[in-house]
Amino acid sequence: MLRVLGILVGLLGTVVFLSPASAGIFNFGNWAGTGMSLVLLLCCLFEGQLRALTKQLPAAGRLLRLLQGVYILFLVLAAVISALMYGELNNLPEEGEERTMIVLGCGLEGNRPSQMLAHRLRRAESWLKEHPQMPVIVSGGQGADEVISEAACMHDWLAAHGIEEERIYIEDRSTATHENLIFSREMIKAKGLPAEIVIVTNNFHSYRAALIAKKCGYADVRSLPAKTTWWLFPTSVMREYFAVPREWIRSYR
Questions:
Q1: Which domain holds residue 31?
Q2: Is the pTM of this model over 0.90?
C-alpha cells in the first residue's frame, strides 16, 4: 500500500513541478521538486531491486538510509517553514496605523505585469483605495529581458486603476528582495514617509520578505499577502523551503 502511494505521489509531484516549465518558468523550485519526486518514484518502482542490492552491498544500504533520513529531515523542515509562512499571512496592518506600503517587483510580460505581479498589484490597489492617505513605494528595477522597469510598470498600472500619482514613489534600481527593501528604506528617509511598513508580495513570499526587511533595519513590518496562481504555487513554495534556511544562516553571519 505504501509503495503504491509513493508511486502516485512521485508521479503527481513530477507532473506538478514540471508544469511551470511549459510556460518558460525554470527555477530551483522546479528542479528540486522534480528531482525529489523522481527519486521517490524510482525508489518505489524498484523497491525489490533496491532491497536485494542492499543485502549484497552494505554501502548501498547505508546510502539508502541516509537518503531516507534526508527526506525525513526535509519534511520536518518544510512543516516548520510552512507554519511560519502561514503565521505571516495573519500579520496584517491594523486600522488607523500610519504606514508606508512597499510593493515588491516581479517579472513582466513585455510592458505588462506577469500573473504574479498582477496579483500583488490588485492586492495593493484594494488596500490603497480603502486607506487613501497611505503612500506606496513600487520597487523593482529593469531586468535584461524587460522593456521597462518593474517599478515603472507598477506605477502605470496603479495610476490607471485610480491611485493618485502623488502617492506613488518609484524605486527602480533594485534587482532582488533585499535591494527592494534597502533602497525603499533610503527613499522613506529621504521623502519623510512613515518608517513603519507593510509589504505587498505573494503569499508564499511574505514570511521571507518580512525576515529580510527586519535584517535591513525595519523595526515594524506588516504583510499584505497576495494570492498566487495555483499551478505556480507548489514550485514557489518548494523554492522557499530552501531560500528561508539560507536567510536564517545569513542572519548569524
A1: 2-88
A2: yes
